[in-house]
């Protein structure tokens, strides 16, 4: 019986045209930042098992007109597609994935959890059938191994062969079905994946053994290998099953975090609360959220009092109390009581959606080491096929049956599953661990870069110091009332997110001062704000920006910002700021790990030196413009240093982008800040040294995985070519090599 009979015939892919409705694809799509006038979608890909599969999906997507970029992660099974709505629709590139032999669904599809459970059940059943049949085949094969000469008749031996053939048939037809189907798909698509060598090995073993069963005197001899075949399939499926479970615990941890919004919620329709799909919600809706449910939108409580879990959003692990009139965030969990809320923000406008975008982008990215494995995977597989063919030629004179089994051993043992999983499995496990602790990884490559960092540069305001400031004194020119100066400054500061600007706005609100209405207001990074009033230009910011005279009285004990006009200095605002409570411990932890710590600030040099002395930093520079910060960073890099920059993401854009790796820190950080590699969602500065240590540990795990994969092939490939490695042992080795890599990576996900 031919194994190809078990291969399901491919069907014509049906394009899900309903996803072309913008209302539908908005659930897994957002506007692209890097590509103007394009959309960025996140997908989950079924049917992938290796890096070669990921490359095939990428190639299929890139052939679609209008698709600008396609990235597929083999370990996470996620795809990132950047496409132009003017030239293509989701149905077109989803159909392209189907034609390539894979299945793609939106990343946040409600059916994904059910699909994953179904996949696990099918894999479990295939494994159980293979295990049961293997035990029975081994029982029938045992007499042939232990019987002495003349102790078993030819008829009895032939009966044992037929019984083994019957028991092997379910393994080939059912348990091996996915391998044959994937191999047939690869052949039709004129490509190579890791399932092709495995399927060839299974087919050759079954064919040789079947020939020996039907015709013991034939050219392939009388030896049967049903025990080797069933053991090989059982070990391979064991590895795949455990790998599937572990992947759900590592890469799946990320997926669980970004898929926490409910599928539906109760909405007030004027008469009663009716459950509706979350994607049908609108701003202004009145919702009821039950205990244990996640809030589907940012809103304000209208009724009830409860505890909420905002760990993912703010890094705060302790449940927080929320009462009527207080805000709640999408993605946070309602813990204790039913509450009703007014919907304020939905979709991409929520903090949760921005976090999802960052995490999803990271899950589909390919770091340099993973890209190297991808480039090696397909040529390596071609080399595997050539090596197997060469082994068959060399061993053919010793007997066709034995030669074919050597070919099988070479095909099986050289499958580069461990190599393709070595890097992404570890990086995804680390990213999931960091997400749970309040650090969002925007680029997986950042973890590799962070592990090599030897210098960390901190911004001061809003990073080492508390984000909140307060105006403690106002001094003005001449007889100008402080309230008038405060109104002018608030008119400019109201359009800035800088902590000093927010402090001035808060002071105006507290004193009942109405901000002045100014024209042509703009912010100049590193300097301050400027605008026009009825009398001319008004500036707010640094001393130089506001034309403060040289030698002007400066209070080095507090932070100062200034107000100026066409005549020069107009007012000085003294601000208080406090060092973060955990800043000293964080700096000490970094220094203990062998990292040099520096401070760069746009504030007065004396203020920068004071904060540096408080936290234990010996190298500090104040009065730095964004250009000066960038030049200093580049000077460090020219010295051969690997630099990490920690800033608040407001005025540090150039230096964040230029650093080897960068942190955007603090609650005030806009999550759409595209320069940062890692975003710290809470107020805990200790996340920086913790992330550094985890990155170093992750790189060690990656190197261990790569060393194991290389060492395994270096030892086993010569043994297989020499004919010293039976097929069942080759299958066991391949399964164990992949399993060891995933188990080693899984250690990173544990707290």
List the helices and strands and how they pair.
Blueprint: H1 22-25, E1 29-31, E2 39-46, H2 51-62, E3 67-73, E4 78-83, H3 90-99, E5 103-106, H4 112-146, H5 154-175, H6 177-188, H7 195-214, H8 226-249, H9 251-258, E6 264-268, E7 273-277, E8 286-289, E9 298-303, E10 306-309, H10 311-314, E11 320-322, E12 327-328, E13 333-334, E14 339-345, H11 351-364, H12 368-395, H13 400-413, H14 417-436, E15 439-441, H15 445-450, E16 455-458, H16 460-464, E17 470-476, H17 482-493, H18 499-510, E18 519-524, E19 528-533, E20 536-541, E21 559-565, E22 568-576, H19 583-592, E23 596-600, H20 605-615, E24 619-621, H21 626-638, E25 643-647, H22 653-658, E26 661-665, E27 678-680, H23 687-721, H24 727-746
Parallel strand pairs: 16-23, 16-25, 23-24, 25-26, 26-27
Antiparallel strand pairs: 1-2, 2-4, 2-5, 3-4, 6-7, 6-8, 8-14, 9-12, 9-14, 10-11, 10-13, 15-27, 17-22, 18-19, 19-20, 20-21, 21-22
